Amino acid sequence: MPPSTDCWYKRVVHEKEKETTEREEEEEDKSSDEGLLLQAHHAMERMEEFVHKMWEGRWRVIPHDVLPDWLKDNDFLLHGHRPPMPSFRACFKSIFRIHTETGNIWTHLLGCLFFLCLGIVYMFRPNMSFVAPFQEKIVIGAFFLGAILCLSFSWLFHTVYCHSEGVSRVFSKLDYSGIAFLIMGSFVPWLYYSFYCSPQPCFIYLIVVCILGIAAITVSQCDFFATPQYRGVRAGVFVGLGLSGVIPTLHFMISEGFLRATTMGQMGWLFLMAVLYITGACLYAARIPERFFPGKCDIWFHSHQLFHILVVAGAFVHFHGVSNLQEFRYTAGGGCAEEGGV
Length: 342
Ligand SMILES: [Zn+2]
Hints:
Elements: H1 3-26, H2 33-55, H3 88-93, H4 102-123, H5 133-160, H6 165-194, H7 199-220, H8 231-243, H9 246-256, H10 258-263, H11 267-286, H12 303-332
Helix pairs in contact: 1-2, 4-5, 4-12, 5-6, 5-12, 6-7, 6-8, 6-12, 7-8, 8-11, 11-12
Bound molecules: zinc ion (ZN).
């Protein structure tokens, strides 16, 4: 058991011990010293059993103010928190219980299964629906890989977050890295189809987004990055990584013209995707709506849950845009010379 969790349990055990001692002091007249010792011993045994059962699923949600510091993340969620549970079995069983993380876990667990099924169906599409089946399945596969990694790291993090300080720290780093994977994976098919006839800028933009993505993953490994004070910085880093797509977008618009960019280039869907992601990041950073209704959004509709839903919606909108780009390329054929565009 890590030291902080150990301390928390020691405190709970100590408080129960104190209660037992006080009760026993009142009954001092009735019992002999020996009887008291026996009772205290039984009380301790019951407490140990209680702690054990808590790990094994017989736990109750607790208010924010009694959480150990490492579990205190959002002080607008007043009640409904899981206590520290240093057992992976208990953490995974808590997926089926109602608490502050239930919505966070299920939004990305279901999202992950959805993209996994969609990815499998897409990869098994007949090769005759593609101009270059192998290459295209790899670039679209990069998007699915990014989405599945992001969503699975996320639901896993929210599931084991209450295990212990060490486990929560490791999984939060994976969770943040997953967002960078989703963004990098989303760029791959979009750049491939948008710059189909200009491999050089396509390659340069890909390298740039990979460097920026690796930089975001590197900064996510710092312990301070996961702290509540850095909530705004975290949102900023990932919004910034996503917004690096503005430069290739402008490049595409200048070369193709606004009309072709919105029709052939699917800019409308990409714009909607950006709006969904940025709205999610703003709600996350500002902790809206729970900021205005502390204690009213403890279980449902708090900012992190809304952010999760918007991430899944944004990824789906991106997939829709990319599959339209793929369809356009299929209809236009593999040739470039006659188009004269990017
Ligand atoms: Zn999350």
